[in-house]
Amino acid sequence: MDVFVEKRKIGLVAGPCSAENRSQMLDTARGLKALGVRLFRAGLWKPRSRWGSFEGVGKKGLPWMNEIQQELGLKVMTEVALPRHVEAVLKSGIDMVWIGARTTANPFMMSELAEALKGSGMPVWIKNPICPDVALWIGAVERLRNAGIQDVRVIHRGFCVVDSAPYRNAPLWELAEQFRHNFPELTYYCDPSHMAGKRELLFPLCEKALSCGFDGLFVESHNSPEVALSDSAQQLTPVDLGALLRSLHVIID
Ligand code: PEP
Ligand code: MN
Q1: DSSP tag of 1
Q2: Which of 50, 55, 131, 194 best tests ligand 1's pocket when mutated (most atoms within 8 Å of CB)?
Q3: 118-170, pLDDT tens digit by residue?
Q4: Ligand 1: which residue has its CA nearest to atom 6?
Q5: Fewer CB within 10 Å: N-end or C-end of the chain?
Q6: How far, in Å, from the CA of 103 to the mean position of ligand 1?
């Protein structure tokens, strides 16, 4: 007998780790739209640990983002790490940006980005810093706020620690909780993809995030994760993301 479980409405941002080519972007976006996704993410400029890894397609991917906006009606977002990324994004009409974990950890870069984003009216999503330092995270939000940026949204993606096993980044939920005390009014999403590092570990992390009161999830999804040029092991196909949402008993708000 089926037991009726009321579904919880959550926010969802989904899309590939990196924009790779037009068909990968459009195909992934179509699959996500079919699930009811309204906010699409894709990294154009990718911060990679090793020199020589795929560093993203850069500006070349902006028209693919525009096509997804116009043809599918999705809102699109990408990572900005330098003022010149902000300039390119503003020119092309991208809807939102996120600031990555390595950038949040750098107060000089945060000041430069806050200055570049000032007056844009654009929602700015900010990840926790890569190191487990709540003050650095708070300082990054203060820098955005001091530049008059009103719409700041927070993403908890876990922290780089010596022993994070079995995860790629340790969740350290208590640090997110401490941070939240400072800014209780903000919107909080959890990025289980970068915490997990492996798609098999996503489900319990999503469950935990939702039980901790996060407003939504920020998940990497790729039409062919096995051939993805970055973060291959942690990405889900749109179909598998749909199955994950069903097993979590959630629907997209
Ligand atoms: C990403 O979202 O693809 C990314 C690079 O994330 P983070 O800054 O959390 O490592
Ligand atoms: Mn990634």
Answers
A1: -
A2: 194
A3: 999 999 999 999 999 999 999 999 999 999 999 999 999 999 999 999 999 99
A4: 100
A5: N
A6: 10
**Minimum CA distance residue for ligand 1 atom 1:** 17
Contact 102, 131 (CB under 8 A): no
Give the burial class of 35: count Cβ atoms within 10 A of its Cβ; 0-12 exposed, 13-18 middle, 19 or more buried. middle
Q: Would you say the C-alpha torsion 210, 253, 192, 143 has a positive or negative sign?
A: negative
Pocket of ligand 1, beta carbon within 6 A: 17, 43, 47, 100-101, 127, 157, 194
CA distance 204 to 189: 15
Number of neighbouring beta carbons within 10 Å of residue 117: 22
CA nearest ligand 1 atom 4, residue:
100
Query: What DSSP element (H or E) covers 82?
Result: none
**At which residue do the structure tokens 């941002």 appear?**
13
Query: What phi and psi, each to the nearest 5 degrees, are found at residue 57?
Result: -90, -10
Helix or strand holding residue 219 (H, E):
strand 216-220
Taking the CA of 127 as reference, the closest ligand is 1
Under 8 Å between Cβ of 63 and 79 = no
Q: What is the CA radius of gyration of the chain?
A: 17
End-to-end CA distance of the chain: 28
Answer whether 235's CB lies under 8 Å from 25's CB: no
> Tell me: the pLDDT tens digits for 67-96?
999 999 999 999 999 999 999 999 999 999
